[in-house]
Every structure is written in structure tokens, then in C-alpha cells.
From TrEMBL:
Catalyzed reactions per annotation: ATP + protein L-histidine = ADP + protein N-phospho-L-histidine
Keywords for this protein: Cobalt, Kinase, Metal-binding, Transferase, Two-component regulatory system
Protein name: histidine kinase
EC number: 2.7.13.3
InterPro entries: Bact_2-comp_sensor_kinase, Cbl-bd_cap, Cobalamin-bd, Cobalamin-bd_sf, HATPase_C_sf, HATPase_dom, His_kinase_dom, Meth_synthase_dom
Organism annotation: Neomoorella humiferrea
Keyword Kinase found: yes
Amino acid sequence: MPFSLENLIQAIINGNAVQVREEVKKALAAGVDPARIISDGFVAAMDVVGERFERNEIYVTDLIITARAMHTGLKELKPFMVAGQVRPVGRAVIGTVQGDIHDIGKNLLGIMLEASGFEVIDLGVNVAPSTFVEAVIKYRPDVLCLSALLSSTRGAMGETIAALKEAGWRDKVKVVVGGTPLNETIAARMGADGYAPDATTAVQLIKDLIGTGRERRAVLAPATLDLFFREGSLEDLQRAFNRMTGLHLVMVDSSGSPLTPLGGFLECSSHCHLLQDCPAKDVDVTTLPGNFKEAFIYRCHAGLIEISYPLANEDGTVGAVLCGHCLLAGDPATEELRTAVPVLDIKDLEAVCGLLSFVAGQIIKLNAVLLANKELEEQRASFVHFLKRQHQLEQALKDAELKVLQSQVNPHFLFNSLNTVARLALFEGAAATERVVRSLARLMRYSLYQVKETVTLAEEVAAVRDYLFIQETRFPDRIRGQILVGDEVLDARVPCMILQPLVENAVIHGLEPKETGGTVIISGCRVGDQVHIEIKDDGVGIPPEVQRAIFDLQVRGGGKGQVSGLGIVNVYRRLQHQFGSNCALDVNGAPGKGTCIQLTFPYTKE
């Protein structure tokens, strides 16, 4: 069966990977241009799929199946794309930001971008801001695509954009962000160029951004020539050309402004009186036969021959080399005029144009090398600055850690003093006082020495037990605690101090404000390969605005109900640091109905 674009499009829409591969093979065997297979086949099919997705006629699962079918066909075209037979319409670097390991949306975008003719560099998941910056510098993409699924990792997008700005690369690449925790307002606030809720929208957005956002820059500019031709070197070139040909040379920029002294180029004005009775200027020279290397030959206002050779690159004409003045063999002229200016025949004129072509070509090439080296040096300088900034941040972190260690001297003294008080209370027969002081000492030692380590859940529960004993002793008729954590999860490894701050929040914010007090229950069990922990109280509950603030990551360290700066958000971030995106923290509650905090993380003994 012969190849048909309609068959290919329909196979992609149906998500039939096998048929897509076969149709691509048929097209290649029939000699169809690979670029046409992409533009008229893959892109056309994707447009249909995108429209159906927007009309809710198909769903994400259908989109994924379709994308996989396209990817199968793209594998057949890869050798042709690598060999340069398919010129990419743009280059994109994509990745899921630091702290997030979800990649379905990112992978889908990568496939659809490739199907649209883009070269895609996929950095994977959990990508640090510095890694994104290094990739932008290395690959020089048209667009950087940042993906996230977790609201807690939204900040990493802003940090990546800030890192690009710090490195001096923000204005050299478009940044598109996407994912469920975002919207257009949030994307604009963090400094992104665009936001896309899904892959199909992202592809069109990226095309629009790089299609209208690219600013073409002329390779040649007066300042650049000044850099390339050191002081006096342009004049040296003019003098050397004049000695070889007897003609004068002038360079102008794209606006016609001279880049070199006009010198003898203006001397034709002094010959005007010699041409008054000569009809040479009436002889048309624009149609002369010969190979003039794309130079323009015309007569100046005085009637002498003038040559203009354009300085051009792929962006168009950016200047010109002007050469003059001379007579053409056969032009009527006095002996005085023939002595004053050179007289060239067609062969001489062709030779001069050939020389101008060579000179102009070398100027463009060498100037392009200069600009590339200059840009590379600027990039190197900006990246060195970025690395220095990263080093400063790392040093600041080390200094902060040192200050933390220094700040532990006083708590250490207090811890020893509490142990002394506990022993004195035991000697004096104050058993209850001894238990409270001993519990406080254990709790202090636990937080003081193990905050950077992972511990067993049993150790966490022991710390919570000590804390609740202290609170129950302080408020014997108002604060009650129950610990119902199953033995099957007690050996699970967790970051230190993830339970006690949450229990303290429940006691101080939930139970203490309640006139009759209440109960906080800590329960835990294993569900499959996950540990599920719940801290539930029957206190005053949590206002909706506070609950929203927690989800928006607006709650910060410090303030009442926080221990050593470890609040709810801090606990969640440390869980993420330990387990990546394979963990969750959920807060539910309502005024007068208590609060429930649920933690879920992998069960691991290492």
C-alpha cells in the first residue's frame, strides 16, 4: 500500500505506534522529504490532537498514547535529523525543577516539541538551578522549559530564573513554565516569559515566543570594526589599496555613515570642471558585461566610475565598501583628467571587484570570529561571576552552620544543668520533678545532637512522649496525649524532629486556646511501602486563611508553636530533602472542629 499523509496523520491521532512507524518507513522509501513528514504529518496530526484536547474530546491518557505513537515515528526520522536533512526550527532545554521527580508532563512536552521540529535537550528531573544555567550556556537554546507538579517546588522555578539573571543569561533565552501549581499571574511574578497549563498549549506558546521574540543582530557594527581594526589599521588598509590600484577605499555602516576617513575619495569633486564638456556621465555603466562579483558599478555626481561592494551576512546587508574614482576605457576625457584619475578597462574593473570581494569577505569572517570570541568571553565572565556567587552562598551556609554550632554552647550548658537538677530532685525525693526535668533534658539532647541526622521513628516517638509528659504535667486537667504508632513502622528511618514540632503546633495552637483543653492523638501504620502518620487534635481548629497560607508556603520559621525554627513548612521541606517528591504533608481542619495533619513517606531502614 503506497504512502499517504492522511494515513500517517490518522495513525498518530489513533495512537497506533506500529502503523505510525510503518507509514514513516513508507514515506522515506518513497523519497518523501523528512522535513515534510514532520511538518505535513506530525505537526498536522498534533494540531488536530491539540484541538480535540482543548475541546475536552480526549483526555491526558489519550494525549500520552498519541505522544508515544509520535515518538515511535520520530525514532525512524532521528538519523535524518542528526544528519542535518531536517533543520530544527528551534532548540529547547527542558527539565523538572529541583525537589520534584514527576516527569510525565515534561516527557510529553519533549515528544511534542520534537514532533514539531525542535531539537530537545532533556535534563531529567530534580534539576538544580545551576544545572539549568550550565545547560543554557552550553547549548544556547531558544527556550528553557521548567516543569513542576508539587506546589512546594514552585519556588525552585523562581530560583532558576534568578540564577539565569545572576549569570547574565536571562535576556538570552525565553523561559516557559508549566505545571498544576502555577497560573499566568504566578508565572509573571517569578519572571517567566510564558505559562502553559499543558504540553499542547506549550508548543504553540514556544513557537510564538521564539518566532516573534528573536532579535536579529547585525554582525558588523562601527564599534566592532573599531575592535577588529586597531587604531590606524583601517587607514593602513586604505593606503595599501590605493598603492595597488590607484583607487581610494571608504567603508560605511548600514546607515551610510563613514567608518574611515574619506581621504582622497572626495577628490573627484576637484575634477568636476574637467568633465563639464565630456558626455561620459551620460554613458550607462550599470549594464556592463563582466563578472563583477556582485559589486555595483555606477557614476558619481561628477561622472567618474564608483564601485560599491556590500558587506552582508545571513541577516542582510550591514554596510558597504566604496571604491573610486576612475574612468572607463573609451570614456571621452581630456589628457589632464586621464592623468588625474586611473583609466580601467573591463578586465581591470573585474580584477578590482574581485579584490573588493575578497577584502569584504575577510572582514565579515574575521569580524564574526571576533564577535564570537567576545561573546564567549562575556559568557565566561558571567558564568565565573555566577560560580563566585554560588561559592559565596556556600561559604555563607558554612558560616551559618558554624554559628549554629557555636550557639549550641549555651544549650549544652543548660542541658548539663538540667541533669544536675534532676539528680538533686531524685536525692530529695521529688520523683515527679525528677521525671519532668529528665524528660526536658532528653528532649533537649535529642534536638541538640541529632537535628542533622536521620533517626528511627521509635526515637521520634520517644521525643514526642517526653514532650507530651511535660505538657500533661503543666496542664494536668487540660492537655492529654495518646500515641498509637504501630510496631511495624518504628524502625523506619526519618529526618530528626519531624513529629515533635507538629505535636507542639497541635498543643499550643489547638488545645491551649480551648477553655476545656483537649486530646492530641499520634497514630501511625504502614500502608504498602509507605508510612502513614497522623497528628489529630480536637482543639479550636484552623482558620481557612492559615490553611491556605500553609499550602502557599507563606508560613515561615519563628513565632509561637515552632521549635528551633522548625515549623510545618520546614518539616515538609526536610521530608522532601530526604525522600524527594515521594512524600506528602496534608493539613485539614475547620474552626471548632480540630485539626488533622497527615504525613506520608516511604518505609525505609537506611
